[in-house]
Hints:
heterodimer, A: alpha/beta, 4-stranded parallel β-sheet, B: alpha/beta, 5-stranded parallel β-sheet, 20% strand, globular, disordered N terminus
Amino acid sequence: MYEPKIVAFFCNWCTYTGADLAGVSRMQYAPNVRIIRVMCSGRVDPELVMKAFAEGADGVLIGGCHPGDCHYQSGNHKTFRRYKFLKAILPQYGLDPERLHLEWISASEGDKVRDTVNSFTEKIRNLGPSTVRETLNALRTEEVSHG
Amino acid sequence: MSEKGNGKLPRIGVYICHCGLNIANVVDVEAVAEFAGKLPGVVVAKAYKYMCSDPGLEMIKADIKEQNLERVVVASCSPLLHEQTFRRAIQEGGILNPYLYTHVNIREHVSWVHASEPAKATEKAKALVAAAVRRVSAHKPLERKRVDVNPDVLVLGGGIAGIQASLVLADSGKKVYLVEREPSIGGHMAKFDKTFPTLDCAACILTPKMAQVGNHPNIELLTYSELKEIEGYVGNFKAKVLKKSRHLYLEKCTACGECAKVCPVEIPSAFDENLAKRKATYRPFPQAVPNKFVIERLGYPPCQAACPIHQNAYGYMMMVKEGKFAEALEVVLRDNPLPSLCGWVCTHPCTDTCTRGKVDAPLNMPGIKRFIADHAGDFALPMPKDFKENGKKVAVIGGGPAGLTAAYELRKRGYQVTIYEAAGTLGGMPAITIPDYRLPKDVLKKDTDRIAATGIEVRLNTALGKDVSLSEITKQYSAVFIAVGASKNRRLGVPGEDNSWVLPGLEFLGRVNSGERPNLGRRVVVIGGGLVAVDAARTAVRLGANVTLVCIESWEEMFARRTSEGQKEVEQMKAEGVEVLTRWGPKEFKSGGIELKSVIRVFDESGRFSPQYDETKTRFLECDTAIVAIGQAPDSDLFKSQGLSVTSWGGLDVDPVTLQTNIENVFAGGDVLGPDVVVTAMMAGKKAAESIDRFLNGRDLYEGRELEGPFEGVARPMDLERVERKPAIRMPEREPSVRIKDFADVHSTYSPEDAQKEASRCLMCSICCDCQLCKPACPVEGCIDYSIPDEEIELNVGAVVVATGFKIFDPKRIPSYGYGKYPEVYTSLEIERLVNSSGPTEGKLVMKNGQPPKSVAIVHCVGSRDKNYNEYCSRVCCMYSLKLAHLVHERTGAEVYNFYIDMRTPGKGYEEFYHKLLDEGIHFIRGRVAEITDWAIEPSEKGKLVVRVEDTMAGMVRRIPVDMVILSVGLEPQPDAQDIRRLLKLSCSSEGFFLERHPKLAPVSTVTAGIYIAGACQGPKDIPDTVAQAGAAAGEVLAMVDRGYIELEPIKAHIDAEDCSGCKMCNGLCPYDAITYDKERKVSEINEVLCEGCGTCVAACPSGAIDQDLFENQELLYEIEGVLKYV
């Protein structure tokens, strides 16, 4: 079976801690997601998301505090705007916008970490491998040959 | 040291932890280590059983030295647990900066969540380790910033946890601010009688501690206060606390209780679990700390808020309830100079919002006010005479409700007021047109005489535009208020309207009112659906005619029926024999009657008045006289002639807020803006008086006037389903057949007894009724002051202890237990009050009938250990149930049955206490209670409550009849725990209790540094555990505060001025306003102290000029690369 690679950016205060809770509660979920910790989901620069896709991620998951619960007051609001923006530009790179997902998960929602990871993994599995890396490599080669 | 691009990587050591079997059981740790050893830059890669143990740490330290390691990666548990441990270790090694380190989470995020997929888990662990190795190569040495710590501490919650924490901190010399939202500290413990298992009295051990808090020089007690905002960070928090006004000066109050004696308000006492009443002026219990009273005011109740002039209906209701009729009139007169007029004819919007109306029927506020006004002559009327004359002159043109109100309000403020009235008497439209049966002349005269007697000059028979002009008046007076009303009859504009037998409504009413008794013939038709039409119809009935009222509206739309008072009028009219014909409009007045046409609609889609007729569908109505009462209009020609601007439909053009006209010092209101009811005109009078006063004193005309006119009031939380039904007391009403023979009053006024009975139906929505009886009752001069506002104070503290406690489970959520339905089903907390010697029954455990129970059931686990409600065990219920069983048995000798699922008695002396009770003969039945019912099957069950339960020991279903049931309710988070969580940036467990940083190793710390938790807000616990935890929290605070400084994580953002384009994009993004723009250098700068390190600005910078320590772009990019590249 095809095993997608998924990069997740989880905020330190809510979602990362929620993922810890899922662990402490021994909840079982798909092993496809690799979590990168940031202090706030507001730190997730669109560049980081694009980098993940460029390096071969088949999907990118962002997890932040629920609106109104942000440890930094409103970082997650900014995340939401950037998320909308990213969704809009992904098709330009031949990426299905469904490959990017944002979820608000609090520190007490271990079950939501499990459910989100499982359903997102399943979704990416259905979408199949991302071909962006090959596209980019081809572009690079082209650049070199034209260079 | 490596730099990007030069190809030389730093020497990296990688350590994989087995965590016993926690990780090693799933992840092939040796394979991960082997894999790591082959990664670029890695010189050492080892797996070890417990990396965090001393040998593990020593191994790393030794390797750093021997292998000249420049970077370290440890893959073990969550970084939230042990990142600091390893950082400290490599620092202790003496060589490495602690931030040349990366922590990988392969336990919580790998082995524990992928237990059944070891191969994939191993693969994931490899990827995460590779990412860390790649990331750590970009790490730079960082320094932690030291910040001084403010040694003062904020403690939230004054229960036993907050008390204990405060005392420990204060005793060690720290300044403590203890914030409690109730008027007294003590919390739940103050309600208890005895404490388990020692059975020592709760008050005996708690009250000395409370007193200690009250007297401690280092504790500033802020009761009746709430935390509103908090900002800053560990060591330096800035908190905003709202000190609610007690409406008295704390330092002056001697707690003598004289104020409470005169207070007429009685509402359920929350401290006594609603089993007793308390006053609006109260202290929760006699040993309260501080031992002071509070006058609890919520604001305007719904009735007062709905009233356009904010008449304090609640206040006069309370006075009447108490039989204090003169005081009632005084309350009425505070807001209303026309009590008689309003008592008789006001439409009383107050009744439409009355909370009692949602229970059975609204209070008869008009009837009560009329009762007060009718009896006004019996009292020595308080006449406000001591005006501070200010020497300024104001003219009021028009002596109707608006003009009279304005004149009185201005007079109260010290103005010399002259009223110009066109008619020969004061009172305006009500005096001229309202029939005697609805408003006798002498009644209105009582009001107008009283107003005139305050020293207002009255010029009767002086009409504006005829006898005097506006310009003449403005020359003599500083300001003018025009309230000449709407005296012009609206015309139908249909053929035949000028026939002599077609009478304008107002003119007709005026003639009858002045004593004429015109002959109308046998059949009269009144046209119109408003209150004037109703008046005309009922007057015509009294002149002996058969009357039909024709209106274009449908029954539901009828203008007169828009208020509940109007509906009463219409009902009375119908009872008097008037026929109502709806949805017909006049087409033509022909000889012998009126031709009517059918109405298609009255209002258009947007709700505007825009009637449409079907001209083909007609009918003929025979009549001798027709009276047209379709409304009045202001005299726009008059206004224009006086130089005033007029709106498109003829009313005076004024500013809606200030009522100012186009002439600066001329204001106008009442029906000149369009016809409306009496009380709306009075509101205009009040508003105009306020505007004129502001205008003549050069103050802003607009500021702070949002609450003028009706708004939504406040009511204390009430369970309306459980409010006792009390039928309305009706005013005596004369038979319709009798009353139509004369013009005398339809009702007769309440008897004093009936008035008191009706007034006592009031639900006392806003608690304090503003009767102001307590102020003169208070023996201390200047203690009570109703104008003391709420106050917001700012506190600077270094740490916060949250001890906000719990609430009990609401057993109404389990309907089968019958709480709220059967009076003899109680919560355990209610029983605590009943067995408490300072409780409502002074410690006598009796049923509602006053008799002690002969048998009592105690139902355990109510709302606990139940997936439908709370899955968790509330921990204290078994023990307090045993305590209550003992007390009930001891006090009443009753048979006591405990229904339990499992007995949970872990604790010092707890199990022994259980055995003691077994020896005392208390019954224990194992099984969850299915139902409590009063449905008797056996004769022995008659009149009893039957507890139906499956006895799992006996293996049978049993029915146990008892007199009383005690529900051992569980503990839940406070209803506003989520607000506190947001405020303090805490986390909550899924049940809603505050989450500790680590369940075992950091049980009183939270994820937010500097904020600690203690007591039941963290989870259900008993008093000993709560006190221990409070002590622990205080200890943690002291450890931090006494060091004097804290070190901040080096995760700050910084701007490279070289790269900054000065676009200012980041400035607005920072939630802490840490970024400012330097105009001279044309770059943005980050204030390092204010920056909290979220990194939002980094992600936004278009030129990549901003970066964040420890989360640098390069580091994160490497991490992404690493997580994907090698596995």
